[in-house]
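Workshop exercise sheet. Pairs work together: one partner reads the sequence aloud, the other fills in the structure field after running the prediction. Swap roles for the next sheet.
Pair: D.N. / O.F.
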Amino acid sequence: MVKHNTQTSLLNCIDLSNHDINQSVNLLKQACLDSGFFYVVNHGISQEFMDEVFAQSKKFFSLPQKEKMKLLRNEKHRGYTPVLDELLDPENQVHGDYKEGYYIGVEVAEDDPESQKPFYGPNRWPASDILPGWKDAMEKYHHQALEVGKAVGRIIALALDLDADFFDGPEMLGEAIATLRLLHYEGQTSDPSKGLYGAGAHTDYGLITLLATDNVSGLQICKDRDAKPQIWEDVAPLKGAFIVNIGDMLERWSNCVFKSTLHRVLGKGQERYSIAYFIEPSHDCLVECLPTCKSDSNPPKFPPIVCGDYLSRRYNDTHADLNVYKKQQV
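Structure field:
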């Protein structure tokens, strides 16, 4: 079992209002080489609006379980995920994660041919008479967070010696697979020695993740996943900031120059809310080793892969089969 050694990680802070782009690039590059995690501040989303989105999230999770189950996630990963639905670290967890969530993806009408793709389609929305203003707040946040993600993507491109707009094209973030996920940890106390976690140890699948949190700690990172014992470091919440981390797709793209970092959530007996925003390129994007990240002495380590196929496989590996819930409802 994982030993519970923890210290607090000191993360670099990227200020999106900083006019010295070289400073931002250097800070980000250092962060991605060191831990794969950093803070982003002055990102343009007001604190007032962030507070509103958190308040709306709480309203949903406060609904009776029967109401939430009416919005159970579908095959497209839209809607509600109950406690224990997701199992991120089967080797160390005895149950799924002690968290519930709600997925909101890119809204595409059912009659649009694009909706046939795995991660596009209509979202599942609570009825407006039950949660007035909820859909509007989430759609606005979805739009604003994507702009933050694109701004971070430009700094990442420069840090990898690419053109600043490398990730901006239509096949990349111009038609991004962007997924907003509201999360609620009910207040259980995690115990790694017993295999009980708020969220099991995992790396994120995609390009980057923007995480907004309340002021309750719980997130931990492990910079060296192969160390024995693993050393886990707490990531402190920072008011008004996003905690940003890079995912496995960027690790593949960069030929392991930038590494995605193992992270988990340990419940401390307090209720905790967070909002994760996962950003990946379009379904059809071919992820292959970047020209600036390979050489004769460092050839590509991964074969090219199409983004949509890769993501579908990763999601299906970690979520419960939906038939489990059908059996429960019989």
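Discussion prompt: The chain has one domain: 13-327. What would you look at next?
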